[in-house]
Amino acid sequence: MNHLAPRVATVAFGVGVAPLRPLLASATGGGRPVFGYPHRSLSALGSCLFGAPPAVVATGKRTRAAALLFARGGGGVGGGGGVARAPVRAAAAGAAAGGADMEDTDDEMPQARSAGGAGVYLSSTVGGRVAAGAPTLAGAAPEPPVEQGGAYAGQIFCNRNLNMAKITAVGFDMDYTLSQYHSEVFEMLSFQGALHNLVTRLGYPEALLKKKDSYDHHFFIRGLVVDKARGNIIKMDRHKYVKVALHGFRALSKAEREAVYDPTESAWNSFAEPNYAVLDTIFSIPDAYLFALLIDYKDAHPGEITQSNAQIYTDVRRSVDLCHRDGYIKEQVAADPARFIHVDPKLVPMLERLRRSGRKMFLLTNSLWDYTDVVMSFLYNAAGAGRDGRDWKEMFDVIICGSCKPGFLIDKRLSLYRVDAESNQLSNTEGIIYETAEQYLAGGKVFQGGNWTHLHQLLNVKTGSQILYVGDHMYSDILRSKRQLGWRTMLVIPELAHEINVLASKTDQLARIDGLRQQQDELDDAFESLSSELDRRDFLETLAVTNGSNGHGSVAVEDEVNDGAWKRDKAVAELERLRSELTSVKAVITKETEAYHEAFHPVWGQLFKTGLQNSTFAKQVESYACLYTASASNLSQPNRYWRCWPDHLPHDWTFGNQETPSGTLPIQVKTPGDFANQ
Fold first, then answer.
1. Does pLDDT of 17 surpass 60?
2. How deeply is 556 buried, as exposed, middle or buried, from its count of CB atoms within 10 A (0-12, 13-18, 19+)?
3. What superkingdom heads the lineage (predicted)?
4. What percent of the chain is helix, strand and coil (3-state, nearest 5)?
5. For residues 252 and 235, what is the distance between their CA atoms, to the nearest angstrom?
6. How many helices (H) and strands (E) are present in the chain, helices listed first?
7. Are 166 and 465 within 8 A, CB to CB?
8. How many other C-beta atoms can be found within 10 angstroms of the C-beta atom of residue 258?
9. If DSSP codes are grouped into helix, strand and coil, which group holds residue 319?
10. Hey, is 195 helix, strand or coil?
11. Domains (ranges, CATH) in the chain?
12. What are phi and psi of 622, to 5 degrees?
């Protein structure tokens, strides 16, 4: 990115007020921005991802780390991963140009507003297709599941230090972890099967079957929250402030949204079960689409759907679950796995390398054995690993199917069954009683059900911190295993590649937003400073009049009141100018922020951001995922010491790098005397 042009600032009573008009012109396409520093923006993100150290600069009121991502090592897609450090707290504001307060709604999310009070229906096309009665969107991550090319090169990001030398067992979930599905066809299968169940088994209107081809897997993203009772789907920031809300497919206006989700009235522990449901896995995306579709239909056809909104969501969940249980999905995947499953050529080499490192390997999945065997056999054979007669089961010491997570991680009473891999028959087992783990596993290493105590015995681990578990489901794989058992965790987020690629392509726009928000801060400070000075002089004039009438006047007060150098009318005019420029810069920030978020997703914006704050999803990633990456196959360095950035609060940067940014000019100070004799 080109260096930003020099800035000339003025300071009224010690607070910076930069001329606004050139910046507004640049923000709307009129040229390069005159405010903002390259090393405060993300202009170095591309090199940062491949090893350049982060630059940290102090620039007055809004000081922060500029580099969001810091990669060390020569990894990447072809080089065995790579390590990237993500200073999540230090740079929480950086990815969206600074942190807004919980109540700061200047940065309205794209497409979620309407000019009037009734909201708007969202619609667009994908591949030339317009869905009847249900909108579709373009612009989200394309197939394959992990976006190829761009700035993302297979890095793993670290939230908590993790020394692999202390890990004695590594485990994996299967669906959307080892097995990445082609989302469009796999989710369409789930959507159509569930829609059929809703109509034929639960009595919903037959007319809904006409919508069977309307599904668009790009429309919703994970991390959203379903408000069951109201029929809404919402996105919140880490403070649980609702920034985007849809009723069905209709975007709620700002007024509607704030009336329903008033932060002054919402309890801190709200937005939880049983009234709300979190879309915390890709598997739940069809649920959201079905729910929105039914809410829209109910509103458009009064009386045809008599179930409450909450019951509609319950029925949607039952219908989707039934598709997974009754064989509807499994049979079609088994018949043509290549149509539904993406083959990652790095996957099997990664698993074999971990196994050769001497660690115990286990598979822990909620899928039953017959389906697990189909999927894993396909992945193993597609990689060419089965040509010499080897079997995928050789990569694992323990295989547990039908685990019923999160129950597996919580309830020690759940029984364990041994699976005969040839006949698919189950047999009772009490687990290890007298023999060693090796002796017990010699009788078969494939199981169903059980609980974490069985697994710890089979792996011969003493504490949960010896286990690294890799999964995609925030609640069932990551949150519960971390909180309940102390397992170390790695979250697989296929959408991460798309997020980083867009982030890297929008550094110039991000710099503009950053400069505008700094400008807004300085205008705010100048406005408040000048306003306070006017209030002070008003008070002195009142005091002088009151004391003069009582014969107790102060010479000092009278001298200041009668100061001929002070021109009140010019100070008032300057105050109005500041107010006008604040209004202008606020409008431009809103426009720029909307355009920035639209680059990630036309409705929901960034996965990891809600407005200018971390999203609730990002907060959970930071809290519960020791590591996170776009693909499980990136975990190809079995002896790595993963290190995170130190935690930082905004004040930690106050006395950091105080160097003057290059390309700036000396600040011109405006004092009260400047309002005299003008």
1. no
2. exposed
3. Eukaryota
4. 40, 15, 45
5. 12
6. 19, 29
7. yes
8. 17
9. helix
10. helix
11. 157-180+341-493 (3.40.50.1000), 183-335 (no CATH), 506-543+576-606 (no CATH)
12. -65, -35
pLDDT digits (tens, 9 = 90+) for 379-431: 999 888 766 778 999 999 999 999 999 999 999 999 999 999 989 899 999 88
Residue 315 CB contacts under 8 Å (≥ 6 apart), including other chains: 198, 202, 204, 307
DSSP letter at 661 equals: P
Q: Which residues pair with 225 in a beta bridge?
A: 234, 278
Q: How far apart, in whole angstroms, are the C-alpha atoms of residue 347 and residue 343?
A: 8
Identify whether 406 is preceded by a cis peptide bond (ω within 30 of 0). yes
CB 26 within 8 A of CB 509: no
The DSSP 8-state label assigned to residue 38 in this structure reads G
State how far the Cα of 225 lies from the Cα of 149, in Å rounded to an integer: 31
The pTM of this model reads 0.76
Residues 6+ apart with CB under 8 A from 291: 226, 231, 233, 312, 313, 316
Three-state SS for 339-392 is: HHEECCCCHHHHHHHHHHCCCEEEEECCCCHHHHHHHHHHHHHHCCCCCCCCCH
Backbone angles phi, psi at 222, to 5 degrees: -80, 165
Q: Say whether 589 sits in a helix, a strand or coil.
A: helix
464 within 8 A of 485, measured Cβ to Cβ? yes
Is 90 exceeded by the pLDDT of residue 487?
yes
Q: Cα–Cα–Cα angle for 538, 544, 547, nearest 5°?
A: 135
Q: CA 351, 353, 355 angle in degrees (round to 5)?
A: 70
Q: What is the pLDDT of residues 507-517, one digit of tens each?
A: 898 899 989 99
First-last CA distance in the chain: 41
In Å, how far are 12, 18, 24, 111, 524 from 583, measured between CA atoms?
19, 15, 12, 22, 11
- Residues 363 and 174: beta-carbon distance below 8 Å: yes
CB 195 within 8 A of CB 322: no
| The token pair that represents 305 in the structure block | 């759907």
**Nearest to 180, CA basis, from 637, 642, 622, 634:** 634
Closest by alpha carbon to 159, among 655, 658, 646, 635? 646
Q: Which residues of 7-20 are buried (b: 16+ CB within 10 A; e: fewer)?
A: bebbbbbebbbbeb
